Amino acid sequence: MVLAITLQTKMAIIIRRSKHWTAVFRDSNGKQVWRVLSGISNKQDALRAANALEDAAQRRRNASKIKRTFADIYKESFGEAGIEAASLRDFVASWLSEQKRQVSGGTFESYQKTVEALLDFLGNRADKDVSEITKKDVSGIREALATAGKAPRTINRYM
Description:
The chain is mainly alpha-helical. The protein has 2 domains: about 70 residues, no CATH class; about 70 residues, no CATH class. Helices cover about 55% and strands about 10% of the residues. Strand 2 and strand 3 form a beta hairpin. The protein is elongated and about 55 Å long. The relative contact order is 0.09.
């Protein structure tokens, strides 16, 4: 009888190709993945980024955790904070203020109504990072609108 034991270890590697580092690792299905690590110049940071990518691919982390990991790497590398994450509420407020100058009054009111319905449905989740809005949330909004008796055309406009 032969006993086979497989250990899952981190095996991410980095390769220097021209000016950029490239990370090579396996995803959760064992498929080999190559990713260019643009903007990273030193070997230690490239290896850390490759390991973070591999970890994310194998554990299927959500987008906000990946952003935090790369924000940490960026801060350690450059000594400054990177781009701050925006909440959905902040994003739509900014988008609406931009639209106010570009569309008619009636269209703007329609946009406002749609945004209010979206934010009401999401509640506190609207204050989280935009990347945390999931396909399930969108399906939930669609279902809530249908349950509220909205016409299919109205639901599609909201989407």
